Amino acid sequence: MILVTGGAGYIGSHTLLSVVDAGHEPVTVDNLFYGHRQAVLEGHFVHADLGDKEALSRLFETFLIDAVIHFAAFCYVGESVESPEKYFSNNLVNGLNLLDAMLEAGVDKIIFSSSCAVYGEPEVIPIPEIHPKNPINPYGMTKLFFEEILSTYNAAHGLKYVSLRYFNAAGADPKARIGESHDPETHLIPLVLQTALGNRDEVKIFGTTYPTPDGTCIRDYVHVCDLAEAHVLALSYLLSDGESVCLNLGTGKGHSVREVVEHCQKICERPIPHRDVEPRVGDPPELVSSGDLARQVLNWTPQYSLDEIISTAWNWHQNPRF
């Protein structure tokens, strides 16, 4: 069985579907602080917090776990700056509780949901895994610190891991069973689509004088189902005795904010009000992944184009189920 922490969240719930498609039986543990119980469409569900050591012990006693996919974390950059203690407690202390429960139960394989935030301001584009790690906010710090914890546990206890550093997750299940639903919502594509539906007055474009072709920020958008597939491939890799590794997950191709808005207008077939505003502090002009290592190690190649990402998200947002 595969334990999925945070499986009621956006990427976790999509990964659950891929885990089942690959022939595994999942167990989700989630405190439902940000996740949605309705998003867990497969497997067993345990409502618990990783801060509850007794609940974790019971979980590992109840289910025979072969490996863990660890999504459970807080992930709002701005909030992490305002309340770093909240992020260090949840993302690090509770993560340590999980690792200790794994060791106690004899579980020695984990896939970690990391982030390109570990790199901070990019020095080269596309960003390779060997790029210096200089996170510029507490959220990114927690992802880097936990990667270092995993490396230490690997050396001390033989705990094997694959750390997957996401770029910009986007899109939804092609069958529109689940999709992206955050509160508050901070991601560009759902904000644009919610504006297209009339749920927001306008889209704010933060900064128009960056050193990019149209002056707006460029990001690497990767479909959530491609991310889910990468987790299944990483699971297979670890179950086949693969060595611990950190991998970027991105398409290697960037799209600007203005380009995303234009593509959304084309797919939604309606104008989407947008307004140029001052840039946000700490937004790098460009974040694009080098995906060479993930291709080599996992044989992972993202399948979805930007238009397909937006189309699946649009299908979901027109009739969201939670």
Strand proportion, as a percent range, falls in 15-25%
User: What structural class do you assign from the helix and strand content?
Assistant: alpha/beta
CATH superfamily of the largest domain: NAD(P)-binding Rossmann-like Domain
CATH architecture type of the largest domain: 3-Layer(aba) Sandwich
SSE string: EHEEHEHHEHEEHEEEHEEHEEHH
**Average predicted confidence as pLDDT:** 96
3D structure, described in words:
This protein starts with a strand and ends in a 5-residue tail after the last helix. The strands form 4 sheets. A 7-stranded parallel sheet has the order 3-2-1-4-5-6-11, sandwiched between helices. 39% of the residues lie in helices and 17% in strands. With 322 residues, the chain is α/β, with parallel strands linked by helices. The protein folds into 2 domains: 2-170 and 222-249, Rossmann fold, CATH 3.40.50.720; 188-220 and 252-317, UDP-galactose 4-epimerase, domain 1 (Alpha-Beta Complex).
